[in-house]
């Protein structure tokens, strides 16, 4: 049986390469379109996600009495993203929290960093539950679609986005709109799920689908590859890009608790051509495969469980401005790398080097 699974895993990997190359071609095609894009709000030919279904999923999750129980991942990422905001030693006049959720980032904001904050989300029920920043910050809440930003060009000092851009269909257009809304020397600070997020669940469902249903269905939404985000932001016109990744590995008793929590987060499958139901036999088969391939023993409690990986991409991009530091022209260096062995002498003579 294990040999059979190995062969199936090889087949899935081969199929994933084909799909990945096709998706890469589509992303590169979207990047080329940026050069001739006149209106960032024009519809894109590439529609992967059902945005209306995503709004309904978020509404159902928000009206649940225990909705706060499932926000542990977004709370942690919001805290880490706000820590990056505090590293920017500046007070921003107008800030937009795009996809604010329950205020995962906003609740950490103080008057020392922000004077006015606009909290945005596509779901009114979430906005009603979102937590405000510290007293002293002027706050307003509005419904905003991330694919069609309503803000004027050159009007915002800082735009924050925490774990909502992975549901955007036209990511190049959204990046371009964000850059246009920023003032010169404005900054975009974001975090999104990417790369190998939930790869364990994806592969288990694929193996179970092949075994029970005779094929693979899109049960886990696709995530943008890490190397593509930098290219998208650069082509949108951002400067001084900073990208870094982090992984959260969370243990669950079984696949069923993981899927239940994803539903509670409002992170259900929203792929446009998703299957409407998951066969019971396929679901139990996927749970068994998940436990067999990835299940392990907890060292502390000596109980068996399954890991779930969430790969988070953090990004910082600035709108170009003449005041920003720029690299020196090529050939202007005065110290050669071949002199690295005489570093002590070079440091002593630093005063003689022209700057």
From TrEMBL:
An example Gene Ontology molecular-function term: S-adenosylmethionine-dependent methyltransferase activity
Record GO cellular component, one term: mitochondrion
Highest taxon, organism lineage: Eukaryota
Keywords: Methyltransferase, Transferase
Domain Methyltransferase type as annotated: residue spans: 96-189
Gene3D superfamilies membership: Vaccinia Virus protein VP39
GO biological process, one term: methylation
Protein's recorded name: Arginine-hydroxylase NDUFAF5, mitochondrial
Organism: Aphis glycines (Soybean aphid)
